[in-house]
Design brief:
- It is a single chain.
- The chain has 432 residues and is an all-alpha fold.
- It has one domain.
- 84% of the residues lie in helices and 0% in strands.
- It has 16 helices and no strands.
- The longest helix has 41 residues.
- InterPro entries: Poly_Biosynth_Transport (IPR050833), Polysacc_synth (IPR002797).
Length: 432
């Protein structure tokens, strides 16, 4: 049975969880940067780029399809879970083979057998976490998703303190922690799901086929989006030193922390949109959330940009000073990509994921071409410029397409209104 929840309360609680997570992620980022140095940070970052891109494709949209089928009461939780597990076996096997093939290529010679093993174990674990997330999202158990986020942070922090700092295992410890974060999430989701369904591998015709048909569009859209976010690291890995990759990753990580709050909104938004009675209800909710997000994040971006040079040098050390330039170059694009990060889950949950696929193919191609041109000229700064141009084009294009489909004006998506603040005040009053 799908639990009913209040969107405003869910968003506030999820925001609070994300704020804790963001603060923790920042602390962990500083610890890893200081303990590993630019070289080690670059190796660990690059190690998980291809696995994460592959995971987004191997997801097959099962997570979103599960939320859709359960949220609309089309199939039972048990049947969707059993079918998801069957698909997981297939996707995990194929994905692991692809990632192994990548690790065995000549330009990845810095990865020894232990690092490769960690990367390979990470793939099926993370895929299953995604599949379980869809089951829980479809039941609108947003609180459990928030608990998972907090658990991931605690596991990450304790793991870094023990394996990287105290035991001084370096990149091996950092890579192991990344796997343990995924594994702890899997164990928690497993305990949650077992309260409402049995863990049973069973092919229930025609659910796997229907999940694939519904989900493949989600998967392709998500794959293009993720590839657009990560292609810079893949290209940098082959064109600059590990130290420069580490410098870029610190700047990119700090800049991208900004869009974690809209990502928190999208979790709630997807679950609520999948259960919305009308498309109009979902689109109005999405537009309001986007307007509020943009106006608040604009101030964050401005302050962050002004303080980045002092902030990075003081916190991370002089060896990461160039990361401040990366941050400032990425910030405009990060702000603009928030448009698609909020609007895409709303459309995808209502069965229109192909809009994201269609919109972001061109920005991805632009990103690749600009990276190949600008990295030889400006090193990591070139990658940041390429990403910002791509993000800006993608975000604005998605906003235009969304407005046209929902018969709205673009300014109604982007410009905050008086009633938006009134809504926030009313929600805060209800929390008292």
């Amino acid at each position: 049975m799908v639990e009913k929840s209040n969107t405003g309360i869910d968003i506030i609680l999820t925001f609070g969880t994300k704020l804790i997570f963001l603060g923790g992620s920042f602390i962990i980022s500083v610890l890893l940067a200081r303990l590993l140095g630019p070289d080690g940070k670059g190796v660990v970052t690059a190690l998980f780029v291809v696995p994460n891109v592959m995971i987004s494709l191997a997801d097959l949209g099962v997570r979103q399809a599960s939320a859709y089928f359960i949220g609309r009461n089309i199939y039972s939780v048990q049947d969707v879970l059993s079918s998801s597990l069957v698909l997981w076996i297939i996707t995990s096997f194929i994905s692991t083979i692809v990632v192994l093939s990548y690790y065995l290529m000549p330009f990845t010679s810095e990865y020894n057998h232990w690092l490769i093993l960690i990367g390979l174990m990470y793939v099926p674990t993370k895929i299953l976490v995604f599949y379980f997330n869809g089951i829980i999202q479809g039941q609108q158990k947003i609180g459990n998703i928030n608990i998972k986020v907090l658990l991931s942070f605690i596991t990450n922090l304790l793991g870094v303190l023990l394996l990287v700092w105290i035991l001084d295992f370096g990149v091996y410890g950092a890579a192991t922690v990344t796997f343990l974060v995924a594994f702890s999430s899997l164990i928690y989701f497993l305990t949650v799901i077992r309260k409402t369904a049995r863990i049973e591998f069973k092919y229930i015709k025609p659910i796997p086929k229907e999940m694939f048909k519904k989900g493949i569009a989600f998967a392709l859209a998500l794959f293009i989006l993720q590839l657009n976010y990560k292609i810079d690291i893949v290209i940098l890995e082959n064109m600059v030193s590990a130290s420069e990759v580490g410098i870029y990753s610190v700047g990119a990580h700090l800049a991208e922390l900004i869009w974690q709050l809209p990502a928190a909104i999208s979790v709630v938004l997807f679950a609520r949109s999948a259960n919305s009675k009308t498309d109009g209800e979902a689109s109005l909710r999405s537009a309001r959330l986007l307007r509020l997000s943009l106006v608040s994040l604009l101030f964050v971006v401005m302050i962050f940009g002004l303080a980045s040079n002092f902030f990075v040098t003081f916190i991370y050390g002089i060896e990461y000073q160039q990361s401040a330039q990366v941050i400032n170059l990425l910030l405009p694009g990060v702000l603009m990509i928030v448009i698609s990060k909020i609007l895409h889950p709303s459309l995808a949950a209502r069965g229109y994921p192909l809009y994201g696929l269609a919109v972001f193919i061109a920005p991805l191609m632009i990103n690749v071409v600009l990276n190949l041109i600008l990295i030889p000229l400006y090193s990591v700064n070139g990658a940041a410029i390429a990403s910002t141009i791509s993000y800006t084009i993608g975000g604005l294009t998605y906003g235009i397409v969304y407005a046209k489909k929902e018969h709205m004006k673009l300014r109604d998506l982007l410009i905050v209104k008086k009633e938006d603040f009134i809504l926030i005040i009313n929600i805060l009053k209800k929390m008292k």
